Amino acid sequence: MESTEAFSVKRAAFAATIGNMLEFYDFITYSFFAIQIGHTFFPSHNEYSSLMLSLATFGAGFVTRPLGGIVLGIYSDRIGRRPAMLLSFALMGAAILTISLTPSYNAIGVAAPIIVIVARMAQGFALGGEVGPTTAYLIEIAPPERRGLAVAWQPTSQEIAATAGALVGVILSKSMSPEALDAYGWRIAFLIGSVCLPFGLWMRRSLPETILQSESSAGVVERTSHLALARRHLRVIGLALVILASGTIATYVTQYMTTYARNTLHVAAPLAFAVSLVSNGLGIAGALLGGWLADFMGRKPIMVWPQLITLVLTYPTFLWIVHAPAAPSLLLGFGVLSLIGSLPFTAFYATFTEALPQNIRGGVFATVYAVAIASFGGTAQIVVTWLLHVSGNPLAPAWYLLFAATIGLIAMSLMPETAPVKGGRI
User: Fold this and answer.
1) 1.10.287.130, 3.40.50.2300, 3.40.120.10, 1.20.1250.20: CATH of 9-204+223-414
2) Is the pLDDT of residue 5 over 60?
3) Domain map of the chain by residue range?
4) What pLDDT was estimated at residue 22?
5) pTM value?
6) What does pLDDT average to over the chain?
């Protein structure tokens, strides 16, 4: 193993999460431009049908996430974190270039949506194997008293990606006509992410490895013991699955707010993108603050109390937004929910990772994360769109968020406290 002492921990954390950020930018950008992508690859006389087909393709990226989590997560436990992160990043790069350069349905017919669906599935495989190795890596390079803050860069990088996607959306929507945005503007957003891919690959190649080769080689022989070891942690794994389901519903419903603001509340496109920009920007602050507080106060209090506050605030916030859909309610309402709602999940990332032994950490985390995302993240936007359609009630997203927050709070209250130190002292 290369010396992590000789290699700045901060630089290693940045190198790991910059790749994670770029991958999530590519993945999340799709949700911001679901309407335009629907028009390009799924043209229909019915706007609802076009949007649902586009969201179904977005969901296709979640189908292969568990497979990617299992394959690349176990690969990271047995071969190393760095090669697994490099492989997932390269796969994501190929997929995003494919989506951004595929001709429209009007140009090549049914081949267009088929190509896009296959590329989305490749993205899902890559991203499924991204989160586990990266989160494990952040825990392993950090000193015990700073693990929460180090792992905070995992959700923070996702929020940065979402913020960058929203910022690109704001700029494009303000500088281009709706027709131009529909025709090729969304492709520009995707290509911006692909331009950054060589930088991410270069940064990840410089990472020191955190798994000794002798340990990873022994893992190839001891496959049965790995499965047995995972079974010993079934309670924590089950609770983590519920918490991740709760978190992914909240995340992808939040990312849907750009489409919600435009389609349901009928606000202007620049304001709709600004909602995501502000809420994701505050989510960055919340994720980092959650990591610092988890180191200072312990993991469990930072999971439970902010989650309870989020549960209490969700419905009143949506009532305000629906009855006064303007900049103050949209920006402040969604912004506050994003800030408070991001606090508990940083602490959870640290708790779940610390609760797992190193030689199963990457595979178990990646698999559980991918299963939760595939089951609830891939369907979240479809469920919300369907609820809005059948109920005709603009408060429908709040119902789903309340359900998610409730089950998440129960599971968080049952998680163990894993902080090795508190208050920054051993």
Assistant:
1) 1.20.1250.20
2) no
3) 9-204+223-414
4) 76
5) 0.83
6) 85
